[in-house]
Amino acid sequence: MRSGWARAALVALLLALVALPQFGRAAQDEPVELLVWDQFTDPTESAVVDAIYAAFTEQNPNVTVRREAVATEQMRQTVRTALASGTGPDIIFYDAGPGYLGVLADAGLISSLEPLAEEYGWNERIAESARRGASWEDELFGLPLQADLIGVYVNNTLMEEAGLTTPTTFEEILTFCQDASAAGYIPFAFGNQEGWPAFHQIAMTGNNMIGPEAMEALLLENQGRWDSPEMVRAIEAFFVEMRDAGCYSEDANGITYDDGNALFFGGQSLLHSTGNWLITEISENMPDYEVEFVPFPAIEGGAGSFWDSGVGSAYMISASSPNQEAAAEFLDYLFSPEVVQRWVDEANFVVPAEFDVEAVDATPLQRSVLDTLAASIAGEEQFGYNIDVLAPPAFNDVMLNGFQAMLAGDRTAEEQAAAMQAAWEEGMAAGAATPAP
Length: 437
Fold this sequence. Notes:
The chain is of the alpha/beta class. It has helices spanning 7-10, 43-59, 72-85, 101-106, 114-120, 122-125, 128-133, 156-162, 170-182, 197-210, 212-220, 229-244, 257-265, 279-285, 324-334, 337-347, 364-377, 393-407, 413-433, and strands at 32-38, 63-69, 91-95, 135-136, 139-140, 143-144, 147-155, 186-188, 269-275, 291-294, 308-311, 313-317, 384-385.
């Protein structure tokens, strides 16, 4: 679903500033076997994971890591039963969010990492927004390995030539779209054929409307409603008002995400609302353009303008594992500076770990993203939440199909909000009773 990790920008995430505890306490004891389930089934990623796990056992010769790569859907169907039986893995790499991590935490199937976070300094090394994405009821239960930053790319070169300025409010967006169209441009390079690109758009308008704290409560604590007047307004803003103002192509549902990227790369569109994973392709395809990355503008009556970030899966420890100490050392190793470097260099992951921005040779566009990520880790920048990575699959299905229907004019914002709320309630209820919502 992602296109082209921003390799050069990610290198900055390698440079952790905090010294780590020494490894090997488990290795000094009797032999230990750690059974690890992860979701790295891609051959390239899997080879990197094998090498990293093997490096841990080299440093800890009394620890054997037995790895099983499990497809995401299979993991969702089996992990709860396996953990509850006491015969499952010691460590899982599993989805964050209330429908996954939250369900396991509620059932007492995974260990709280709060004491370990203090002992190993994880709170200082891992971005707060990423930790919250892997927490349940204000308690850390997982270590997130990947993070995204979502905002709006601006082609400043063409904007200047057209005499246009970057909109800073939603009302300015609607005027900008009219002016950009009159100048012969597609204002936003938005392609939604696959359906998932709409997830990022509602994340931006939703967080800006209700604010990160309310979004956190909604996603992570199941407090609030998706059919509130504020969320209806957030839905209507992008999928009705921007549609009617001609902010993107009339056939957005017929344009793929990659084709939308091509519109921006080729200078046919002036703005592109997507994620930091596109930086490498922008650098490669737009060498003659000055491109800026900014948060989505504030909506009148909303909470402000925020970058949005999200985490995918996270490493968790089974509560029934007899090898809690060895498992903790293994997780700490996976987030050590040298291994963070390998995750980024070899697997192209965005690891939300502390880094030294000034030590990186980066383009201005890359530098702006690194500065933003560094500010978040330092607690100076508040991020909104990427919704789909923290939501049950059925809820995402409603978003995917519903937003496509809205773009086609076949569903209202109120109808979509009601459908999202119903799917959320169903997903939460199912998640509490079954291995996967």
